[in-house]
Amino acid sequence: MKIFPLHTLSSSLASKIEIAISHLLKLTLPAAAKTSRRGAVKQLHAEAGRGQFEVALGHTACTYAAENLVFTREVIRAVARKRGLLATFMPKYALDDIGSGSHVHLSLYQNGENVFMATGGTSRYGMSTVGHEFMAGVLHHLPAILAFTAPLPNSYDRIVPNTWSGAYHCWGKENREAPLRTACPPGIPDGLVSNFEIKSFDGCANPHLGLAAIVAAGIDGLRRHLSPPEPIDTNPDSLGDKLHRLPKSLSESLGALQKDSVLKDLIGEKLLVAIKGIRKVCFK
């Protein structure tokens, strides 16, 4: 997320942003607590880009998480505009500045227990068999998933090497250059992971469709007992031709989606026809 002035300001931009953020927190925290399940804003801090901030939302079930993201985006836009500012979630607002994503952290729960994380002697890179196969499905279908999670031509200006956006088709353990990254937040025992992060998701995506595509891909991984390749623990860009790039354009991700019969079956033909039509308008 980036925040900029809509017009010339009489006071400093820093002061205006501070006021906007203060009001954003005051409005978002109680409102989100009333209308969502564990979806309130947990963290908000400055990032490295010009006028850039990161907002972290609490974890909850996929459908609620999608709704919380939409709700939070609209509150941020409204509060910023009220303060004479523009809040944008454009993936690459300026080509000479850092892009903005909408990273997703995903874990799997059954009967209140995190079944993505390994238990006992079932560990494979800190994941359970269920977690391992689910993530493998997401990785396998990732080129096609981008048609949902990176929906604009501008999205692909962000997904480039050496920007922590995940430009190569791989995964890694705490590797911020990989599009899929297994994570071990504070409080998790050493050697185990509680979730994985998907970086190739931006703020212009429809979160309901994006999460649906991710879950569908994960289900395919479980059905077929897929296994991911070995993790990449270095910068993928340093490996040259050993790794494939993810789609470099919206047309390429649509091409991958066109070939993906699994997502077609799980998402539904009618919805996919509409999505493809809308995406094609964006680059024609």
Question: What features would you describe in this structure?
Answer:
The protein is of the alpha+beta class and 284 residues long. Helix content is 42%, strand content 13%. Strands 5-10-9-8 form a four-stranded mixed sheet, with no helix packed on it. A two-stranded antiparallel sheet has the order 1-4. Strand 2 (41-46) and strand 3 form a beta hairpin.
Residue stretches low in confidence (pLDDT < 50, at least 5 long) are none
The percentage helix is 40-55%
Question: Helices and strands, in N-to-C order?
Answer: EHEEHEEEEHHEEEHHHH
Oligomer, anyone? single chain
Topology:
Elements: E1 2-5, H1 13-35, E2 41-46, E3 53-57, H2 62-82, E4 85-88, E5 104-106, E6 109-110, E7 113-114, H3 129-149, H4 155-158, E8 171-173, E9 180-183, E10 195-198, H5 207-224, H6 250-259, H7 261-267, H8 269-283
Parallel strand pairs: 8-9
Antiparallel strand pairs: 1-4, 2-3, 5-10, 6-7, 9-10
Helix pairs in contact: 1-2, 2-5, 3-5, 3-6, 5-7
What is shown here, in short?
The protein has 284 residues and is α+β, with helices and mostly antiparallel strands.
Q: What key attributes describe this structure?
A:
284 residues; globular
